[in-house]
Amino acid sequence: PECADQAIGRIFHSERFTTDPAGEPAVVASAVAAVQQGAATLEAALSPSGFVCGDSLTIADVFLAMALCPAWFAEPLDAPKLLAVRERVCADPVYGPLWRAHGLGTPAAKI
How far is the C-alpha of 39 from the C-alpha of 63, rounded, in Å? Predict the structure, then answer.
């Protein structure tokens, strides 16, 4: 499976992946499908604690939340556990203010 950050790169730079401008929508659609497939895999594998690794917030949760930020991936995503990770990062007393200061959303923001 394709790495999500590679797929997101295809969303933002579809022109780099085809010589035909008419093909860009297909490049984007394929990339969106790849991100959604990766999200479904992560959703199924997320630890019972609701965190990516272990029982507390780690940098892995922050990275995942960043990948799910609407600035990077604005398509609808059916992954409630992953979106809950993002909400926990937004609400965290340390990461939350940094998150918002850099325009990465608020806990109420939806993807």
Answer: 13
